[in-house]
Amino acid sequence: MKHLVAPSVLAADFGNLQRDIEMVNTSEADWFHVDIMDGVFVPNISFGFPVLEALSKHAKKPLDVHLMIVDPDRYLSQFKKAGAATITVHYEACTHLHRTVQAIKDLGCIAGVALNPHTPVSVLDDIIEDIDMVLIMSVNPGFGGQKFIQNTYRKIRTLKAMASGRNENLLIEIDGGVNSENAPLLLKAGANVLVAGNFVFSAAEPQKIISGLKAVPHNLMQV
Ligand code: DX5
Ligand code: ZN
To answer: Is residue 223 part of a domain?
Structure first.
């Protein structure tokens, strides 16, 4: 499949949110990536339902909701109601992950599971057939603008091998420090969804950055 690009709203200008939403609407981006942080699972608080609903009202592309919160089960249906197309929960925040994934699917959403940098992809071996997407954190969750962790490539390759023959349509999303230098290598390793926050929103011409990420070829030789 052609890979997807999901600009992370966390890096948008919240004083000019509608302008930044329009920028994404009229760009080649595929999804809006929306980071929800609760100040407990991660050492930062982002925003909640009022902002998500406002975003949903103006966004013309699906909302890819990344929950960095403890006990996400309590809020799944509320996120669906607020406009989420995908809901990704953290492996580290879910005691009954299988149940949580089924609940997301029952809502009609794409079900994603996120892994922190220290969490091996092998923990998903017994649930890989049941999930639609794995989000590999390529920075520690909580903040935008951090440095990309190199071990991510190895994790993508391991995950790709694990999903082979068992979940060929698995979406592999990379979140944190993505830019035009690592994007070709991430796609080459097997990623098919790229999240980018600061790389897009701090650029003078963000739509060109998005187009550039969309145009990255998949067939580069491994460097
Ligand atoms: C980090 C968030 C990311 C973040 C990415 O906890 O999950 O989605 O917004 O931002 P950049 O691309 O700036 O690292
Ligand atoms: Zn995210």
So the answer is: no
Exposed / middle / buried, residue 140 (Cβ in 10 Å: 0-12, 13-18, 19+): middle
The pLDDT of residue 70 is 98
Does residue 115 form part of some domain? yes
Which residue ranges have their beta carbon within 6 Å of ligand 1?
Answer: 8, 10-11, 33, 35, 66, 139, 141-146, 175-178, 195-199
User: Per the domain annotation, does 50 fall within a domain?
Assistant: yes
In a domain, 48, yes or no: yes
* The pair of three-digit structure tokens given for residue 105, joined into one six-digit string: 């699917």
Q: How far is the CA of 66 from the centre of ligand 2 (A)?
A: 5
Question: pTM for the whole thing?
Answer: 0.97
Q: Do residues 18 and 55 touch, judged by C-beta distance below 8 A?
A: no
Parent domain of 149: 4-214
Model confidence band, residue 223 (pLDDT cutoffs 50, 70, 90): very low
Number of domains in the chain: 1
Closest atom of ligand 1 relative to the 200 alpha carbon: 12
The CATH number covering residue 120 comes to: 3.20.20.70
Express each pLDDT in 48-71 by its tens digit. Answer: 999 999 999 999 999 999 999 999
Nearest to 201 by CA among 2, 49, 6: 6
**Catalytic residue positions?**
35, 175
